[in-house]
Amino acid sequence: MSDTRLSFKEMCAEFDVTPRTLRYYEYIELLQPDREGRSRYYGARERARMKLIMRGRRFGFPLEEIRQWLLIYEHEGNRAQMEAFVRNAGVQLTELESQKQQLEEAMSELIQLREETSKDLQDGKIE
Question: What is the pLDDT of residues 107-126, one digit of tens each?
């Protein structure tokens, strides 16, 4: 990652987030940009943190869990952070598998209901 700093607007564009989202991440102290007057600038550290935040959100991890990873890295280093990730990823994979099964069941039921309704319409049972 380069040492080039990004402005607030550039950071939003780089990570495809709204200004509100970026301000919220700052508010809950996931990010601490450099401030110059009213302007905010994001260096390599903040961009790396944002990358981890976005990846965590994509996989469904709660922000508090992501905060813990960031704190572990700051206080205990990369290895401890990766060990915590591996543990949490196992739990999250179980949760995602459960959600996947629920979605598949709902889709199957919806397909069946659609087919039955379509047949009833074709047979003139519904007017």
Answer: 999 999 999 999 999 988 87
